[in-house]
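Justification of computing resources. Each target in the renewal requires a structure prediction run like the one illustrated here; the chain below, 175 residues long, is used simply to show the kind of job we budget for.
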Amino acid sequence: MNDQTISNPALPTEQGVFGSLSEEAARKITGAATRRTFRSGEQLIQQGDVGDSMFIILHGRVRMSIRRDDGSEDVVNILQRGDHFGELSLLIDGRRAATATAIMDTAVLEISRQDFLALTQALPEFSIALSRTIGKWLLGAQTRKIARHRQSIIGVVRTTELTAQAAPSIALFCR
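Resulting structure tokens:
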């Protein structure tokens, strides 16, 4: 992991939380943030930990997963450029609901709890952008149309006649 203060990162203004913000608001947010980089496989946050910051992805991809009581792990989402995470634990003053792991080299902006609270009060458009995104995710979860980027990958190795016949059914099941 690598941390650095940034002056003008390549912001994902075409999508995500920065998509609806003014240049001035984006500048204030980046001024309060720390740019961090993570290698593929590195954890950004751990489920159950106290949340003390939120993240906005500048580039790369992050797997969000939940560890179940039986020890199994469910991948609940794959996030990409412009997506954010970690804000819920700041809003509800709670613990992390999921583990975030970089699945490729990834750069993020990290905003501390203190700066997050100051920014949401000083920049109503930031609060509105976060609320819109969270609302879309909740609506997608309620209607089973997940609004975030969930990827499904299935591979069949050593194809036989039986697996060739079953493959179309498996593909339909995963849609």
